[in-house]
């Protein structure tokens, strides 16, 4: 079991989208990870008497799909006459749910030290749907430029060094040619045939917008109906697999109930019973 614990500091004027992208990069390929530090993000959920800022609103939406731990007491003590104490130091986690934070009033700094306690192997875990999408063509182009060719190898150490260098170049090429996306919904594996239909539908849509040719519109609508039908079959199959797993695993049943509860909470109030 490997748990990654990382420290983060976000400057007050740092662009808000950078915070989320940095968290996703840290969470990527790390099943259990805890990121703690000074986020400089304010929200009424963890700052009762402080006005929310843009970073706090964005982080709150992001944290609804992951583990979030903030101490009950403020972490920054204001030295102004009419200033208000606030909580700026907390933690976000992936793959961990049983975490606790406590603000300690010991040091003389304006930020109190925070003690984080976590329990590994918790029954219920928050897991990010954080996926990496690699542009294969760009990956090949970068790799063809960065790999110098056949290295000179004179002994066994040279072989190991060449292998390590080649592995490092491959990883760098993947990182440079990849994009990270955070999906709040369940990710499905779509068959190649369906992906080709989606690509063809996009082509027909552009053609229709340029020409307004009625047969193109008819063909596009027909293809759209086929795609919807195939995607529905994929979702139905995934749901059947979840139900079958829930019959044998209580944890899987909890995940299904929690997912449906989250979907209901995200509905507007006019749609709730």
UniProtKB/TrEMBL annotation:
Keywords, comma-separated and alphabetical: Nucleotidyltransferase, RNA-directed DNA polymerase, Transferase
Record's keyword annotation contains Transferase: yes
Gene: X-elementORF2_638
Limits of the Endonuclease/exonuclease/phosphatase domain: 3-115
SUPFAM superfamilies named in the record: DNase I-like
PANTHER family: DOMAIN-CONTAINING PROTEIN, PUTATIVE-RELATED, ENDONUCLEASE_EXONUCLEASE_PHOSPHATASE DOMAIN-CONTAINING PROTEIN
Record-linked Pfam families: Exo_endo_phos_2
Coiled coil regions in record: none
Xref: InterPro entries: Endo/exonu/phosph_ase_sf, Endo/exonuclease/phosphatase
Keyword DNA damage: no
The protein's name in its UniProt record: Putative RNA-directed DNA polymerase from transposon X-element
Annotated GO MF terms: RNA-directed DNA polymerase activity
